[in-house]
Amino acid sequence: MRNAGRLLLWALTLAACAGGTEEAEEDLAVVAITSIVGDIAAAVVGHEGEVEVLIPIGVDAHDFSPSSQQASLLASADLVLANGLGLEAGLEDVLASVASDGVQVLELAPLVEPIEFRDGGALDPHFWMDPVRVGDAALAVADALDAHHPGGWQERAASYATGMEATDGEIEGILAAVSQDHREMVTNHEAFGYFAARYGFETIGVVIPGGSTLTEPSSAELADLVEVMEQSGTSAIFAETSQPTALAEAVAAELGDDVEVVELFTESLGEPGSGAETLSEMLLSNARRISEALG
Questions:
Q1: Are residues 56 and 181 part of one domain?
Q2: 227 and 142 within one domain
């Protein structure tokens, strides 16, 4: 009887181990490079896997390099979701390396009909400023998951896309307070091209030239921006929560007390309590701040 009991215990132990192995195999490990892409990933993956965000909230994706531990996290993922189009410049070599080792790496920006920067040439990676394109990105994630891990991705992606269409409608309502002749924006860098195209705005100047935050403006470029703002009568400079505001404040000081610096969420979701903890909340928060500043 004692031996039978031991055999029963051994069998139960093997069954438990087998069950644990099966469960581990079913857990899908997804790494999203930014918190914005993480919002999309979490909505599509749901409870069928685990989503980890690589770049911490509030950190600029343009200027991020991974630690060795973070590189290992990417190498062990079933799917890595990146933004693409040069946004994660400091991660390009690591992403290429893990992709060559067989990790599925999906870049979302090239899949949602990207637009060029306003000066032409390079494609703009900041697609998440258009909620309709965000919905399209979610559907692309579902397609990628279905190809290797059949599940309920499509239904959740469609639901998320529908929610983003509703967010788009809310944004249009909020921005209705801004008349057509006041829909001119000066921003910290070229991050609002998709927003401008979607809602009928125009970016007339930027503090940091180009589509990255890594360049530095010359004194002549800042002087030109001051002149543009003087001629247009623009009353706000839209800075970023993930970047220092010193340059924007210096430009505003040149123009007098009538110009305010307004911080928007661009490269990252907000911290808990910020009102921008999800991508939908972030876009709505930006719309309210823009409306209040220009309306």
A1: no
A2: no
Shared domain for 122 and 233, answered yes or no, is no
Residue 257 is predicted with a pLDDT of 84
Q: Which of 131, 150, 169 is the last residue of a domain?
A: 169
Global pTM value: 0.88
Domain total in the chain: 2
Question: Domain ends where: 120, 139, 169?
Answer: 169
202 and 138 in a single domain? The answer is no
Q: Is pLDDT above 80 for 146?
A: yes
Taking only the tens place, the pLDDT of each residue in 245-266 is: 999 999 999 998 889 999 999 9
Domain residues for 278?
A: 177-294
The two structure tokens encoding residue 245: 């505001």
What are the Cα distances from residue 151, in Å, to 28, 108, 148, 154?
11, 20, 10, 8
Residue 144 CB neighbour total at 10 angstroms = 19
The whole-number pLDDT of residue 241 equals 93
Apex 105 CA angle, 99 and 108, nearest 5? 145
Mean per-residue pLDDT, 116-136: 94
HEC string for 117-149: CCCCCCECCCHHHCHHHHHHHHHHHHHHHHHHC
CATH number for 83: 3.40.50.1980
d(CA 49, CA 29): 6
Q: Contact, 203 vs 196, CB < 8 A?
A: yes
